[in-house]
Amino acid sequence: MQEPQLNRIAVNAFCTLFSGCPDFCNLQSTFYGWVAFLASEKRRVVIKFCRQQGRLSQEINSVNRLRSMIDCKVPEILFFGCEEGHEFIVMEWIDGVPAHELPNEPYALEVFSEHFTELLINMHNQPHHNGFEISENKYDSQITTAFETWMNPVLRFVLDKKSPFSTAVKNRFENLWDERQLVLAPLNETASFVHDDCHLANVLFDAKTFKVAAILDPADAGIKHREFDIFHLNDIRPELDLIARYVAKFPLAEGYEIRRWYLSLWDDAKHASNIGWYDEQSFIYKLEKYHHASKRSGRMF
């Protein structure tokens, strides 16, 4: 078990940085790693570990960029370290409640949904005229070729004989890749800075006002297209239909419902390549959603 080791590293880091031991340390497992919540009478911090080597360095850069782009709290990174082979970051503790725990009260849902979509729209509306970001200070004016740069390594992982993907799902991903030009062509418009994982588990709300208190975990943030944020909005608490609220205020190009599932499938494949996660039934479900959306639109690829 790694948890006792990570718990010890977190406590030692707290003691070293703040000249005193925490009164408690609550280590929790997450999709990409572990998060420890530590507090004493004088200090509260969050210490984050990651399963994917190098991802925390990427997150430090992304956190700083997101903070300059969005009008809400983003946790400050206080320290980056490595102990016993485990990288970690020490972060500001921000008070708030995970947004997937929003109460089923009309006022709370309305206030949060309105505020969150406005924050995203304001961020997406900031122009980035250089194009789509494919690496540091390097851009591509075409979404399809940018997508190829982002996802070629993912495709190689999916199709590799050692990957966990079944033959049937591999074949479907080969078809998806062949369809990229037709599916993505409507996105050749102004690029936007995106969080790229803005589902409700990465958002905190204020328990008194129900407004967004903070946005977390922007490791994959960058200058892409705003639809790389929007498809995440209904991943958790789909009954809120945050996508519909966003689109009502900031319409999308025709064919969005197809691209929603297309981008979601590639995003899941990216996570699989990053940490080895795989859920066959989830991929099949989304492939069927993509197929039915294409069929309904009359644009079968």
UniProtKB/TrEMBL annotation:
<dbReference type="InterPro" id="IPR051678">
    <property type="entry name" value="AGP_Transferase"/>
</dbReference>
<dbReference type="Pfam" id="PF01636">
    <property type="entry name" value="APH"/>
</dbReference>
<dbReference type="GO" id="GO:0016740">
    <property type="term" value="F:transferase activity"/>
</dbReference>
<feature type="domain" description="Aminoglycoside phosphotransferase">
    <location>
        <begin position="39"/>
        <end position="237"/>
    </location>
</feature>
<keyword id="KW-0808">Transferase</keyword>
<protein>
    <submittedName>
        <fullName>Phosphotransferase</fullName>
    </submittedName>
</protein>
<dbReference type="InterPro" id="IPR002575">
    <property type="entry name" value="Aminoglycoside_PTrfase"/>
</dbReference>
<dbReference type="InterPro" id="IPR011009">
    <property type="entry name" value="Kinase-like_dom_sf"/>
</dbReference>
